[in-house]
Design goal:
The chain is an alpha+beta fold. The protein is built from seven helices and nine strands, in the order H-E-E-E-H-H-E-E-H-E-E-E-E-H-H-H. The protein is about 40% helix and about 15% strand. The structure holds adenosine-5'-triphosphate and magnesium ion (MG). Adenosine-5'-triphosphate binds next to strand 1, strand 2, strand 3 and strand 5.
Length: about 280
């Protein structure tokens, strides 16, 4: 296997002995650079987070709501955007992904196994295909209707397990799911939110499930008319969601009662998103 000169951000991990060699760069995403590395006999994946200034804006609107911070000085600094505040926001953002990975792995969700988090670098399992090569994203794969139905069902089971563990992914789509030899693996979790404590959790869950519906609906059009998102959230709210639940894809709306609070939240969300979009375009 080849090797490359370790990029500066990985040098510290090489010196600490956490990484032996850097094999190659896998991807450069919006939020991170991803490398294939060797650690002893294992091949792993190193995700190096970019600085906040180089990242997209997706965490700005709703993801940071209710994120736990250690103390109020930190919370105030984060709100004011001082340098200390930015560092704290940064650390919270990065450790959110590590926390989510441990929590979800423990809940039986198929995510990359985390190995270490050091100096802004997450070392985790390299998800591989049947040949042992880095696994493709769903977006890069074609499916038969049968395969689409199977993967869609598998991923809904994963979404339910995540929600049972109190987590909503928040950016689930064909770009953040890899197709491993043994099936789909969910990745990219720094924006994951606490389902119970975040006002946007419902909207984010519905969006996650909708992304799956639309993607797999391209290959199996009958999926397009399913309503698993509403069904799952309804079960969750009523406290009867469990990992082994049987889903139907049907959802009967209660007629009459309008939840004014949630309508107002939808409006607020739309306004906040629009404001963030305008900021990005400046
Ligand atoms: N554990 C892993 N195993 C194999 N490949 C991975 C792993 N983690 C990430 N990758 C690859 O690196 C890419 C970027 O990772 P990730 O989505 O976590 O970062 P990101 O910066 O948020 O990227 P993007 O902005 O493209 O969503 C993934 O699409 C995938 O191809
Ligand atoms: Mg991604």
């Amino acid at each position: 296997m080849g090797r490359m000169k370790a990029p500066p951000r990985l040098q510290a991990l090489v010196e600490e002995g956490l990484i032996d060699t850097v094999v190659r760069q896998l991807m450069s995403g919006k939020e991170a650079m991803v490398y294939v590395v060797r650690c002893g006999d294992d091949t792993r994946c190193a995700k190096v987070y970019k600085d906040a200034t180089e990242r997209s804006f997706r965490q700005a609107v709703d993801y940071t709501e209710n994120r736990k911070v250690k103390n109020t000085r930190q919370a105030r600094a984060m709100a004011k955007g001082t340098r200390f505040g930015r560092q704290a926001t940064e650390a919270a953002w990065q450790s959110a992904e590590v926390d989510a990975l441990y929590r979800l792995a423990a809940a039986g969700v198929r995510v990359p196994k985390p190995h270490n988090f050091h100096d802004g670098v997450l070392l985790m399992e390299l998800v591989v295909d049947a040949n042992g090569d880095a696994a493709p994203r769903l977006n890069d794969v074609e499916f038969t209707p049968e395969q689409a139905r199977t993967h869609h069902a598998t991923l809904l089971t994963q979404v339910v397990r995540m929600l049972c563990a109190g987590v909503v992914h928040g950016d689930l789509s064909e770009f953040n799911i890899l197709l491993a030899a043994d099936g789909p693996v969910v990745i990219d979790l720094p924006q994951a939110v606490d389902a119970a404590g975040n006002n946007h959790a419902q909207r984010m869950l519905l969006r996650d499930v909708d992304n799956l519906r639309i993607f797999f609906g391209r290959f199996a059009p009958e999926l397009l008319s399913t309503e698993h998102g509403h069904e799952i959230w309804d079960l969750y709210e009523r406290g009867v969601l469990s990992p082994g639940v049987t889903l139907t894809g049907l959802f009967v709306r209660k007629s009459g009662a309008v939840d004014l609070g949630s309508v107002m939240r939808e409006i607020d969300d739309a306004l906040a998103e629009d404001a963030a979009r305008k900021l990005r375009m400046q």
